Structure prediction request, 938 residues.
Amino acid sequence: MSEEIARTMESVATKAPAWVELRYHRRQSQSLQVQKGLVKQARALTTAGVGVRALFEGAWGFSSTSDFSLAGIEKACQRAIQCAKSISALKKSKIPKLPSTKLARGVFNLPGYQELFDMPMDEKLHHLLKAEKSTRDESSRIVSATSAYSELFEDKAVVTSDGARALSRLARAEFRLSAFAGDSGSMSEGHHNIGRTGAWDCLFSVEPIEKMTGATAKLAVDILDAPSVPGGEATLILCPAIVGLLAHEAIGHTVEADFVQSGSVAAGKIGQVVASPLVTLQDGGIVPGNRFGGGDLLVDDEGVPTQVTTVIKEGKLVSYLHNRESAAHFGVEPTGNARAWLYSDEPLIRMRNTYLCPGESSVEDIIASTSNGYLLEGAMGGQADATGEFMFGVQKITHIENGKRTKTYRGGTISGKAFDVLSSVDAVSREFQLDLGSGYCGKGQPAKVDAGGPYIRCKATLGGSQK
Amino acid sequence: MTEPDLKARDLKAHSAELEKATNFLLSQAIKAGAEHAEVCSAFRTTSKVGLEKQDYHMASAEEAHSIGLRVLVDGRQGFSSTNSLDSKELKSIAQSAVKIARISPSNPHWQILGCENVAANAPKPPSTDEIEGLSFTTLGEWTRLLFQTSTEDSRFRINDGSVSTDLQVFLVSNSRGTRKLESEASVHWGLMGMGVAGEAITSFDYFSGMSRRASDVPAHLVDSTKAFCTQVLSCLQQGPATSYVGTVMLSPRAVRDVVFGAIEYHLNGRVIAEGTGRWKRADLGAQKLSSQLSLWDRPWQPDRLGYSLFDREGVPTRNSVLIEKGRVLQFLVDSYSSHVLDLPVTGHAAGGPSGPPSAGSHLLEMDGGTQSLMRLTQEASQQNPSGDFLLVNRFSGQVDPVTGDFSGVAKGGEWWSKGEKVHTVQETLISGNLFDCLGNGFVGASIETQVLDGAEKAPYVVLNGVSVTAQ
Prediction:
């Protein structure tokens, strides 16, 4: 199907009176959710179509269609060009012709697609039912549990009038577990989510499902009676998932070149020291030495091969994240960060797998050398803005006093200015994990991303109780 | 401006096409082995002119269908959906939904209902003609207005923005004879941007507006954009904050972000059915929150987003009070929770064609209080021994609906002293327990209320017992 449509798109692209990019995208997704032994949701969803972006007289136009005939795709192409034409006269700064760059040609598949596709749905459901029951059975204080699974099968073909012709397929799987603990009117929730690019087994390559059920139930019970943490600036040890949030939300967004052009805090800082020399931050389509990243990608939606982009090298800001337009503006090569969620979305600059590189300490050594601080575990949502100011939710906070874990607090939030926090990093562990693969990044449209890193020790503000 | 060749926006023709596909899919579902079936389908066409980086960015014109099928087979539920109306694809969807149902364990609570007609006194849906007839040139003209208004002060930086028209047809039909169809048209505008003056940068902020009447758009667009940019630029004058525990004031927008989601979670029939919330079926009629707090769901407002005369299952909606003076009067009940809880459906099945129904509200509104905003700011000052308090304009953080714990950053936070605004603050966090704050900690709500992004409505609210952590 992809090959046939790619041929049709190629014939439309060659005849187009403008630079055009045509992207066929078929997504099949299935999801299951189990609660108290009952299936609460079982669904399948298919969307397929062709998105066309045109650059004509210095302006962008976009249109899409779910009609795969030559006539249907031609019509969408004409409409995209007409849209571009409609705002060309209004545009102050015309977009110049995109410079030539290395464009992908060929087939770029990631492993696991067929294996996951062929695994029967009832087998996946069986694992979910078992995991949900095990979680409920872990403690008498667990009043309810939920297990959920979802999978995305992506088939794409990207053709541009200047030579890209890339066919790709990949599968992304996610597993989510929640435990609700309750006692005397109070309630708490613990959850554990995992997302990978690949087949079923890669979901549990780091932690087996049996261990995950026990840990999730324990988390809910541990925080049920736990007090709120005292608020204020503190020494914090962040787990890999929270480091991933920091890398993605607080740094990654500020170095997306479109945000930089709008005036983000990273504007004009290339070459400057923005973090501790212990900090190296990268964004990669594939993470060297780490298979199955939740944001794995070989070719982006402009047909540019992805790469590992070093954003901060030993504390110095060295690169932004680019699409073809922003790369031309900054006079650099594109970094393969143009991504669209559906065929009907235009490609935007998005991250893939964003992480801090590991260091040399062990996490236990970092804890042992902390006289007064907090260990933060379990990432919840996070947000950051142009100033680099961020906010992350965490599930569990443990007080570290004289190198020992002492008291458990319930979750809260941390906040700070990204570059200030990264400048305060004084320890980086060798233990490394990508741990946000079940996450979706929002920027007008969702994107599947992953993020992670080592454990790090830094200073930031804990949002907690005041006396 | 060149006029793109847009496909005819005749919603009547698209309604007929959707209805034909819906009937076909229902018949295919029964053929494939479903005992009962429900189809939810939609057509949507959007034309948009976008801004980015202080300039025009992209124009786009799109059309899309979506169609979802829910089936019941031996007490088992299956769901499948697609964006194609092609008969081969629809047949495949019917088979997929039945297959999914067959692998699912039986659950006696799944229902597909025969639904009553929409009440005769329900407000008529607004005409779509005016917006159907709009040209791309008009859209470009309104985008120019958005651009000019927001860049009048060069300190305001546009990250992105747009003006768009949106036309939709929504249909719910099932094998028990339910058939409900509605069309709507709207114009939307919005901006995301920040203030920059030398080294000073404000947080990103965003707003959106909508209208169902083309003639109202220019004035409404200019006024709302001016108000938004003024608010963003006021955040350039930053000063210090002090940590304390005591009262904070939430703006209507912060009330929506902090309060609405958490209360809605506990009113959700599915949550009550599963026992994962703090309220039980027996709590209907019980005093759970401050007697100063009343919350409504009012979907019968044709000029607002969230307007709907029927829900995702085809059950007629109505305006209803959910919490009256702190007493829980109604839960949000769909057919599933209705069966579990033995309560009547309330027209609160939520969702669209790409997923099976869940339960949720349409258009929440919190009643205003008894004090003017000015009087309320004085009261907030008086409650804190220092005479200072934080006004949270936007909340960026987490609200755990299960525990009620909230914690996050006060965006666009204003520092007030003795009833007067002093400056704005950054890097200031608030935290507390929402249900404590909405009980004994509820100090008051303003008489003045605001409609938020063309949808919900809320007053300013003062809450006590909140920890404020300043850097």
